[in-house]
Design a protein that fits this description.
single chain, about 300 residues, alpha+beta, Spore Coat Polysaccharide Biosynthesis Protein SpsA, Chain A, 5-stranded mixed beta sheet, 3-stranded antiparallel beta sheet, signal
């Protein structure tokens, strides 16, 4: 066979071989993979996708509520309102009394006594109406106790600390974890005197809401005292009964609130007095954390307790 023919034969065989090899290679290639599908989001067992968030929020709320309850158990409302009776917001006695009350921790509300006239009976009736309105505010309010002051008060200074009053609303009145045995608001369910005049120890039947072992007194002067919400309601009821029936409380001049409160005090077994050992320098019968400052201001009512 000639060289040309051999070359042609070899070329044909080579082409045939390459075709076969290419065919075999294509058949062995891995098939194309289908496009990856997106995996569906995992759904909680309830089928509600917001369950996890809701559960977390609920848990957080429960923790907050527990913390709030725990905080409230230790840190109760530490604010108390002093209702300052006055006829003139800009008078020196009102300005000074307001500063005194704010200085010991009270929030001050000025209770304006209505003008009824210039006679003594007009002034005492005005004072009575203002105090009765304060009772209604306290009874309908949210604070457990409210405090009533006239605008001629001064802090009583003890002999040991003549330049500084030891009285504090948060320390002496409101009960919390550090003063459960000494706080005034725990000693009686209805009322207390922060200052009293001509007092005498009450020896009658105690009110069931009295803390055992608490010395109880009744006296005149309504320049500084406190009533609970229940006490305010009972004071309104008592005074209204006195107004309707003189024999109920046994007094003729029922416009004098200091006399009415003295009788109200005795009716409910006497009230505790804040710092009964502290007495006024000039008026020794004025005792308590707050006294009437008769050296600076004269009475404008002329009531029996003045």
């Amino acid at each position: 066979m000639g060289a040309a023919k051999k070359f042609t034969v070899y070329l044909v065989l080579f082409v045939v071989l390459m075709i076969k090899m290419n065919s075999a290679g294509l058949s062995q290639k891995a098939p194309l993979r289908p496009a990856a599908r997106a995996h569906p989001a995992k759904v909680p067992p309830s089928g509600n996708a917001s369950t996890t968030t809701t559960t977390t929020t609920t848990t957080t709320n429960e923790q907050t509520q527990r913390a709030t309850r725990s905080s409230n158990a230790e840190n109760i409302d530490m604010t108390r309102t002093a209702y300052l009776l006055t006829v003139n917001l800009t008078s020196p006695r009102t300005i000074r009394s307001t500063a005194i009350l704010k200085g010991v921790g009270f929030t001050v509300h000025h209770a304006m006594a209505p003008f009824l006239g210039t006679e003594r009976i007009d002034k005492t009736n005005s004072n009575k109406l203002a105090q009765m309105e304060v009772y209604r505010i306290i009874a309908a309010g949210t604070q457990p106790w409210g405090y009533v002051f006239e605008d001629d008060i001064a802090l009583c200074r003890s002999k040991e600390e003549p330049e500084e009053s030891q009285f504090s609303v948060q320390r002496n009145l409101i009960c919390h974890k550090n003063n459960q045995d000494t706080c005034m608001e725990s000693k009686h369910a209805l009322g207390m005197f922060l200052g009293v005049c001509g007092s005498k120890e009450h020896v009658g039947k105690e009110h069931p809401g009295t803390k055992p072992g608490t010395p109880l007194y009744c006296g005149r002067c309504v320049h500084s005292y406190g009533v609970s919400r229940e006490g305010a309601s009972k004071a309104i009821e008592y005074v209204e009964k006195c107004d309707a029936d003189q024999s109920f409380c046994g007094i003729a001049n029922r416009q004098y609130m200091d006399v009415l409160i003295e009788r109200f005090c005795g009716y409910y077994g006497g009230f505790p007095v804040s710092d009964m050992e502290c007495a006024g320098k000039k008026f020794k019968k004025h005792k308590g954390s707050f006294i009437q400052d008769r050296e600076a201001f004269q009475t404008i009512l002329g009531s029996p307790g003045s």
